[in-house]
Structures are given as structure tokens and as C-alpha cells.
Write the C-alpha cells for this entry.
Amino acid sequence: MSPRELYSQLARPAEGRILLLVLDGLGDLRTATQPETALEKAATPNLDALARRASLGRTLPVAYGVTPGSGPGHLALFGYDPLSKEADIGRGALEALGMDLDVAPGDVVARGNFATADAQGNLVDRRAGRIPTAESVRLCAAINDHLATAPSVPGLTAQVFPGEGYRFVLRLRGPGLSAELEDTDPQILGVPPLAPKASGSSAGVTVERLAKILPVIGQAIIAEPKANRFLLRGFASLPHLPSLEHLYGLRAACFAGYPLYRGVSRAVGMTVANCGKSVAETFAAAASGFGSFDFTFVHVKGTDQAGEDGDLGAKVAVLEDVDRELPVLLAALDPTKDVVAITGDHSTPVPMKAHSWHPVPVLLAAPHAFVDGLPRFTEATTIQGHLGTFPAMNLLGLLLAHAGRLEKFGA
Amino acid sequence: MSPRELYSQLARPAEGRILLLVLDGLGDLRTATQPETALEKAATPNLDALARRASLGRTLPVAYGVTPGSGPGHLALFGYDPLSKEADIGRGALEALGMDLDVAPGDVVARGNFATADAQGNLVDRRAGRIPTAESVRLCAAINDHLATAPSVPGLTAQVFPGEGYRFVLRLRGPGLSAELEDTDPQILGVPPLAPKASGSSAGVTVERLAKILPVIGQAIIAEPKANRFLLRGFASLPHLPSLEHLYGLRAACFAGYPLYRGVSRAVGMTVANCGKSVAETFAAAASGFGSFDFTFVHVKGTDQAGEDGDLGAKVAVLEDVDRELPVLLAALDPTKDVVAITGDHSTPVPMKAHSWHPVPVLLAAPHAFVDGLPRFTEATTIQGHLGTFPAMNLLGLLLAHAGRLEKFGA
């Protein structure tokens, strides 16, 4: 029996609510050149106070030595086996999900770029001079108008949705569609966009229909001065994951400013709330929404970004920002029954400027959490903690247990 | 998905090289009568210095409470599941492999003893008075000459290879051979050697052929004054393990003085280098070969031998010898990209005079290893380390990761 099956079988309703604060890429390294980690260096009085009354430990996102992408990293924290087939979600699908699109099972989505071609139809700019978002909004509206009035393609309706800058998403809907499709983006200049082509045996019909609808889209923008072509990549369909509500009866909400994390959250059935991108905005929104959900996921991107940039000072600053705003978030909790956990989806050590495989510090405070009494929340103190080092996908079991949401197993 | 499948799927080439130093039977115990372990008692300034800049932890070779043999102990360190069927290699096969014999898939090998029988053909010495190696060499040559000139047995060619002292190896080659054979060694005196007999249903044909060829071998030595008989045990065929090169693209080399460890290494596709048995000889050979391989396995036998002998002083002396020679080995590494790990294949605690199930200290130093800053490398300090306590078969994943040889998992 997988941990998820076990937890699902034992799940029961209770009053305890769960707050999961993910500081993306939290874990870091001590090395010869970086003797202190960001968590060690940052002044975090509020986090320290929380740590002193919490259980500490470390999560292992996927497996020893394995560096997780953001998708598997978060799915594990939500209790899904990151190595299972169902958890293998393409980045395109996650980003599309994160754009608040209505993507239903069976739909196929692709990431699109507006691009520029010369009079011969050969690409001269794969990003259409990086047109602003407002342009993309206008172009998408023109395309959708054209699609609505052009003769329909049997078995296929298409719609486009503007993204940031030159980016958009194409959604294909119809019976029997397949996402086994090659990119139409040739990745080079001086050639035209590629024709639709199957990458697997299931996509024959989809390619036929796509070959009819892509010219309709093309027609809508062909006379544009810059954005007169479009390129598609990362065809994907919606991942099919049983929701947190289905599995555990958790009404869950996501407070995340970035599309990818909103996408993972939507894939597991969370309500994706509107919130800004700053820590203060995100925490304020989460605090005010907390009472309406059983499970509240709050995401901070800055820690990962600073790690990717190799900027220890920036990582410290984000942690200090988080620490400053933490009381707002914690004030929403009822300390007599609610649970708060703080961790990361993976490590993004400053010296590596990349995601890594190193275990991630985790803190759990709840009425029945063992009080380690450790003075701070760092990579080194968490080695000593009550929670030990454990697979990230088991964290949800601990959260449910501490919220009083798991029955006893066996007589 | 098994860890090995995962690591294999994610493996990519990189410049980082890996050094795995196995101090056989490294782990030891503190008990009422032995208040300090060999690692605690030994003066190891070089190891201490390495420990201070490394991540520490402990490996669990097979499972909690399970004492590993040397085969499973090493296979786990090489990334193979020691509980899998493919990893179940007979000692005979490992020792035969370790003798640098040409053993092909389908061959059957057995360990042989030269023995002495009286005029009635009953055994009086199962080791032929412990004849010297030179005698075994002469006898094997005589047998092979006789086999070459005697009438052939259809479907079977046999050859013998001298070992140390009274020992040799018999190699059987031919279509459809099976290793499901009982020993011909009766383990007692006063009776003749046993006739070949199947131990499983697959060996009927093999027994028929063997019954024809064993008298030919016997004839070659029947007139010898001492070694006038031979006994066979441990029939085995070559284990079929996918190589480290096949799985991870690792060109791997073994520097080990003893046959069993050379055998395990050959079974996983390592190049088995010539090296002496002393620590100094082994380390010098490994250091000079290091640059030609991606993965270098170095084996020290003395720690296990001292443990088996219940000799704490001897174990301390071996560790101090290792410490003295360690700089030679480490000098071969490029500290900006290479990885070194030091551990054991199991514990051989002095108070037990035997292998044991206790976790084994492990040290890992690499550019992106978390620096624990612990002062020494001992059974007790490693409990506090960043690596935690983990299955030995995951060590290879950590080594690959630290060498930059694993892709990120998922988007």
C-alpha cells in the first residue's frame, strides 16, 4: 500500500486546519567558500521563535542524489509519489494550468510564441521583437474572433489565451485528441514554422485537424507588422491526479504568484486564489483566506530565484522578508488546533546556482508536535530534529495527523 | 521504479570522477568491555582533516538487523539492490571471477581442493597436506595436458586453474550446462569423494557429462604421492549484472588485492587492475590509475580481518596505515570536481569477531557536499551528519549527483 492509499484510507474530518508554507529552493550548503547558509546568516527572530516550539527535520523530495524539478518537488509535498507516472507532468501543462485557464480532461494545450517572418515566410525573430503583453492580448482577441467566424473544423475547437509578453497558450478541445505532437517551433531563424507532426502513434487524427485550424489562426495575424507568425511547443494534456478533497476530504487553496505553482495546485484540485507576487501580498491574501479552507498552500518564489542567481545576500533578504511578514500569516491560525509547516520543494544552493538533491529543512508546529527546543531553523539544526529525514511525500501524512485528520490504524 | 532504474535514467556524462574507498568491515562497537571503537582510538590526522570538510552519515547495507556477506555488502555500495535475485551470487562464482579467469555467460565454475586418499580410495586429508602453490600450478598443468589429449566428452570442455596452496578452480564450458550441482566434497574423511549429483532439475545433462570428465581429471593425478584426489564445491555460473558502464556510463576500475572483491567488481563490469595487497601498494596503484576511469573502487581488507580476529589493536593499526597512505590517494583527485567517499561494506565489530548488521560510517567529500564541520570520522560523529542514515544502495546516487552525473528529475 502506498503512503497515499494509507493516508486516504485513514482520513477523517476534523477542525484542525493546515498551513503549508513553501519557501522555494530553501535548502542550501556550507562549503569551503560559503561557510554559512542563508538560513544561518539571516536575522529571523519570528522564525526562530516558531522553531523553538516546533519539531524540526528534513525532507527528501524524490530520492537520495536526485535533483527535483518544481513539479515533482511540489507534488511530493502534496502527498503524491513524485516517481509515479501520474505525477509526470510536463512544464507546458503546468504553466497552462497556472494561467487560470479552463483546461478539462482530454484538452490539449501548447505554449505559443508570437514571431516575425519575412516576405518569403522565413522566421526573422522567434519572439516578434518581444512585443508587450498588451499586444499579445490584442492579438489573441483577434485570433479568437477569427476562429469564431471562420468555417469550423469538425472535431476541434481552438482558443488562444494571452500570456506575458510575446507568449500565449493554445487550447485544443475535441474528442480523441492526443498531445503526442512535435513542436512547430523550428528553434532556428531563416526557415518557416514547421507543419504539425505527430511524435507518437496516437496523434494521427489530431494532426489532421490541427493542419486545418493552424492556417485559420495564421490568417488572423498574417498582416500584422511584427507578430505575423506563431510557434507552438510543449503540447500536453491535463494531468489526471485525484484531488486532495477526493483523497482526504481537504478543501485546499493555493496562494502563489507564479504560474507553475498555481498549475501544480490546480492539478491536485486546489482553489487557486488571486494574490500578488510579493511576500507581503501573498501572506496577507493567505491569512485572510485561511479560515475558508482545510489546507492552505503558500508559495514564496524569491528564495529559489536568489539561489539560481547565486546571490546569498538576496536569499538572506528574502528570508528576512518572510520573517517580517510571518506574524501576519501565523495570526490566522488557531494555535490550539491548527498546524503549520515550513519547508522547500527542493534545495537551490547559492554555490550551485541550481536546484540540487540535498535534503530540505522542514519545521512543523502544532499542539502535539514534539518540541525539539532547537534554537533556530537551519540545515544543520534540522539534522537533530524529532522529525528525522524522511520522504517529502510523507509530510502530508504528518500534517493530517497533527490536524487530527487521521484515524488510528488497526484495532 | 527502483533507485537503480531512476539513477540510470537520469545518468549523464560529466567530468567529475568518483573515488570509493571501502575499508572492509569498518564499523565497530562501543560496549561495556570496549569503550572506544577502532576509529575512535586510531590517530588519523589525515582522515580527520578530510572529515572536517566532508558530509558524514551512515549506510545500512541490506536492512535493519541484517548482517551482509561481502558480496551483497559490495553490490549495495555499487548501486545494486542486495535483495534482488540477480545480486545473489555464489561465493564460488565471485572467487572464480576474482582469479582473472575468462568466465563467459553459460560457463559453470567450481572451487576445487587437491586432497589425499589411501589405497582404498578413502580420503585421509581434504587439503593434501596443504601443498604449496607451486605444486598446485604443476598439478593443474598436468591435468590440463591430460584433458587436452584424452578422448573428448561431447558437449563439455573442462579446464583447471591453480589457486593459492591446495586450491584450484574448475571451469566447465559447453551448451546447456547448469550449476545446480552438489559438492563432491563429502566434508569428512574415511570415505571417497562423492560422485557428481544434481541439486536441481536443470542439471541432468550436466551430471552425465561431468561423470565422464571427472575420471579423466582423476587419472591425471592418481599416481601423485600426496595430491591424488580432488574435491569440488560451490558450483556456480557467472552472475548477469548490467555493468556500471551500461547503467550509468561509468568506466570503472577495481583496486583490490583479494579475489572475492575482484570478483564482485568484475561481475559489475569493472576493469580489475593489478595491485598488491598492502594498503600502500593498493593506494599507489589506484592513485596512478584514477585519471583513466570515471569510478575507482579501492578495497582495504585489513580492517575486516582484524575485526574477525577480535584484535582491536590490529584494527587501529590498519586504520593508521590507511591514514598514513591517504594523502597519496587524495592527491590524484581534482578537488574542484571530483568526489571521494569512504565507507565499509558492513561492520565487523571487534567484540563480535564477525560481520554484523550495524550501520556503517560513511564520509563524502566533494565541491557541493554540505560541510558538517564535525571533527572526526567515527561511528558516533556520523550519526550527526548531513547524509543521515540511508540504504547503502543509494550511495551510488549520491556519488553520481556530486560528480555532476545526474540530470534533474521532472520539469
Observations:
- The CA atoms of residues 108 and 237 of chain A lie 5 Å apart.
- The longest strand of chain A covers residues 108-117.
